[in-house]
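[Discussion] Sanity-checking designs against the backbone

I'm trying to build intuition for which residues belong where. Below is a structure token string of 90 positions. I'd appreciate it if someone posts a full sequence so I can compare it with mine line by line.
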């Protein structure tokens, strides 16, 4: 990528967009620490993004013992699919 900004980042903030795409494409281990590693950000930053997405009803948290699994809502899935298509076109 270098000094030139990736065209995708001109249209979208890359971390939130990539978190949605990662959730869409991930079959298991859908929790914060795994997502943070996948999109190359800190755990706390990923949690902030996920909390905003939860407020917007794009993701939902499901507690299973000590682990909070994260899943896309129907609307979140639709948005993730559109963002991924756009990313692939760019």
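Best answer:
Here's mine. Compare freely.
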């Amino acid at each position: 990528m270098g000094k030139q900004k990736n065209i995708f980042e001109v249209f979208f903030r890359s971390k939130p967009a990539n978190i949605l795409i990662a959730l869409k494409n991930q079959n298991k281990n859908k929790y914060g620490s795994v997502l943070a590693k996948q999109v190359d950000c800190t755990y706390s930053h990923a949690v902030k993004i996920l909390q905003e997405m939860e407020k917007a009803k794009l993701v939902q948290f499901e507690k299973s013992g000590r682990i909070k699994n994260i899943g896309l809502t129907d609307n979140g899935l639709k948005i993730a699919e559109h963002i991924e298509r756009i990313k692939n076109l760019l």
